């Protein structure tokens, strides 16, 4: 092995641990050694669902998946915003195959109805689902609840996506599909919550709620849930991964974190750079070492930082059981 080949993993890890890799420098440097781009047309004839596709990273994913030839199901909660995305992408890429999908990911009844509808359409055509990217995200100022009474970031980041994954498993299996949870590097700041009180962020009372903490907690939950799914489905047709995008310039960052945006603005990567790994995970279906399923810039990354300890398997099971109960689904023993 040439000496620079041995140094590249070290440099990559330094970029990761120092957080410099989260900025636009991450993809700019790493693309010199990261795995090859998916072949043009590699997703032709395949279907991919992107949630939260009306803004930022999700919108960038629509363009990237369409340019690989996929039929992209553009899922949002606002029909006007979806129509705008469809018009913009078609203006730039007239051959793009796009399907409008309206669903509020935080409303479990809406998710159930939408999944049944999509499954019926796919079953009628015999098509499968090659990709399901759980990208929809929110950061809220106050504790609010979903129509089913769940804390809202939990509902949007964890419960809705979990239910979607359960209900679309047959269609995902038919296409050798990949499920990708778009988490956040912010998840490193939170351990997994495992009691109903803390999962639903009722601890501390209304005054104790911090949107940024709720965000970090539920982003940690996404990584743990994706790992649990991966264990459950190991060796089967469907892969389940999680990733984080680094720091990307999107309306979500500008609106939710204006101070961060002001300081970091020039260093933020563009939305396409933030979306890259999720698109690559679906298109390339890379092999991991069997234990790491949390990715960033086309490489597996640790799920703990510095002195953090890995989550206890029994506690993770408590969390998964709560998610299964809240979504009315059954998690195998
Ligand atoms: N940008 C970054 O640097 C960064 C860093 C770490 C993680 N992330 C993660 O990446 C994902 C995308 O972030 P972004 O920066 O692109 O944010 P964004 O610009 O705010 O986009 C978020 C998208 O999610 C949609 N959404 C929110 N709640 C929804 C619901 N209940 N049902 C359906 N769609 C819903 C939004 O739709 P509306 O337009 O209708 O609100 C919007 O399309 C998020 O999961 C975020 O946590 C981003």
Describe the structure.
The structure is a single chain. The protein has one domain (39-327): Rossmann fold. The chain has 13 helices and eight strands. It has 333 residues and is an alpha/beta fold. 47% of the residues are buried. 47% of the residues lie in helices and 11% in strands. Strand 7 and strand 8 (299-300) form a beta hairpin. Helix 5 runs parallel beside helix 6 (152-167) and helix 6 (152-167) packs across helix 13. It has an eight-stranded mixed β-sheet, with helices on both faces. The protein has helices at 3-17, 25-30, 56-67, 79-92, 108-125, 152-167, 169-174, 196-199, 211-233, 251-256, 258-264, 271-284, 313-327, and strands at 47-51, 71-76, 97-102, 131-134, 178-182, 239-243, 294-296, 299-300. It binds NADP nicotinamide-adenine-dinucleotide phosphate. The site of NADP nicotinamide-adenine-dinucleotide phosphate has 30 residues, from helix 3 and helix 10.
Strand content: 5-15%
Instruction: Count up the domains.
Output: 1
Radius of gyration: 19 Å
Structural class: alpha/beta
- CATH H level: which superfamily? NAD(P)-binding Rossmann-like Domain
Task: Give the proportion of residues in helices.
Answer: 40-55%
Query: Could you name the CATH topology?
Result: Rossmann fold
Number of extended strands: 8
Bound molecules: NADP nicotinamide-adenine-dinucleotide phosphate
Order of helices and strands: HHEHEHEHEHHEHHEHHHEEH
The level 1 CATH classification is Alpha Beta
Q: Which architecture per CATH?
A: 3-Layer(aba) Sandwich
- Low-confidence segments, given as residue ranges, are none
- Counted by DSSP, the helix tally is 13
Q: What gap, in angstroms, lies between the N and C termini? A: 45 Å
Biggest sheet features: 8 strands, mixed
Overall pLDDT level: 94
What form results from the Cα inertia axes?
A: globular
> In which order are the strands of the major sheet placed?
3-2-1-4-5-6-7-8
